[in-house]
């Protein structure tokens, strides 16, 4: 099982040093969250909390994940990065393709593109994109981005996007993996049909087991079981070496964690405490040898 550190809601002046430390102690990846802006009035429930309220406020720090991946990539050599997940629906696919291709090239193919639709009407409408039919539009966006990133002169004539022959150079020298987020049936079908992996929000072990089983069934329906596929998980009820072993047994391939939160420190903890938590986590799980037993 791989290990990924999420830097969600962390102070911007700590992020580069955290990437260096994560690589030094043996983490595989950094998960890069996405938020475009904070809107004061919330018109629909936030889908990932029981009460529908957001876990952050107007002062919570965020940075564009693609810019951050480039910055972190410049100070590391092995660490991978993936968006977790980018809210694709309110963006333009050609502009995103240019950014993703740039990050992939600048990091020497150490970037994975985690994508979601986005949940808030405000983000869509204030970015000039309709909220309606967002799922169908994101499906077409993914098709466009993959087409452009594959390289060469391409054209596209779809329902939502239409362009004649164009080329973005250089194309990444390896395919950029796409990880699809979301818990709905539609999202799981999207992941099984076109994704190189699926990424969860906060879920229990039982929920993860059920979802992974369903995804494998869907992948069989799409004749994709012979292709590599990542199951990136945030689990809220299995801890310790035994808990990690149980997650590996149900098929989790990538464990996403915020080590300093588990050590009782907040998102705004000093850098040194976060670095100590990264080292402690790595000693306990990454270097303990439990996967060899």
Outline the low-pLDDT stretches.
Answer: none
Total count of helical runs of at least 4 residues: 10
Q: Helicity level, as a percent range?
A: 25-40%
- State the major sheet: 8 strands, parallel, barrel
Question: Can you list the strand order of the major beta sheet?
Answer: 1-2-3-5-8-9-10-11
Total number of domains: 1
Q: CATH class, anyone?
A: Alpha Beta
Annotated CATH topology: TIM Barrel
Distance between the termini: 13 Å
CATH architecture designation: Alpha-Beta Barrel
Structure, explained:
The protein has ten helices and eleven strands. With 293 residues, the chain is an alpha/beta fold. The strands form two sheets. It has an eight-stranded parallel β-barrel, surrounded by five helices. The two termini are 13 Å apart. InterPro entries: Lucif-like_OxRdtase_Rv2161c (IPR019921), Luciferase-like_dom (IPR011251), Luciferase-like_sf (IPR036661), SsuD_RutA_monooxygenase (IPR050172).
């Amino acid at each position: 099982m791989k290990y990924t550190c999420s830097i969600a809601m962390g102070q911007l002046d700590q992020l580069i040093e955290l990437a260096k430390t994560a690589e030094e102690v043996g983490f595989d990846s950094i998960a890069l969250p996405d938020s475009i802006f904070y809107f004061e009035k919330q018109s629909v429930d936030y889908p990932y909390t029981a009460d529908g309220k957001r876990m952050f406020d107007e002062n919570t720090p965020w940075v564009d994940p693609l810019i951050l991946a480039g910055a972190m990539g410049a100070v590391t050599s092995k660490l991978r990065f993936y968006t977790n997940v980018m809210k694709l629906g309110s963006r333009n696919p050609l502009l995103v393709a240019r950014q993703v291709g740039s990050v992939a090239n600048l990091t020497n193919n150490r970037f994975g593109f985690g994508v979601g639709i986005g949940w808030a009407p405000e983000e869509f409408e204030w970015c000039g994109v309709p909220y309606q039919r967002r799922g169908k539009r994101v499906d077409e966006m993914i098709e466009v981005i993959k087409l452009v990133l594959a390289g060469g002169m391409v054209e596209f004539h779809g329902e939502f996007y239409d362009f004649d022959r164009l080329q973005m150079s250089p194309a990444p020298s390896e395919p950029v993996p796409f990880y699809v987020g979301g818990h709905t049936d539609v999202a799981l079908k999207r992941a099984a049909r076109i994704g190189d992996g699926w990424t969860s929000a906060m879920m229990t072990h039982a929920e993860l087991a059920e979802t992974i089983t369903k995804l494998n069934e869907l992948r069989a329906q799409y004749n994709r079981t012979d292709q590599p596929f990542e199951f990136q998980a945030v689990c809220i009820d299995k801890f310790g070496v035994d808990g990690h072993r149980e997650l590996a047994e149900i098929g989790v391939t990538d464990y996403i964690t915020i080590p300093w939160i588990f050590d009782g420190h907040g998102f705004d903890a000093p850098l040194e405490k976060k670095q100590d938590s990264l080292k402690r986590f790595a000693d306990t799980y990454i270097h303990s040898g439990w996967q060899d037993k």
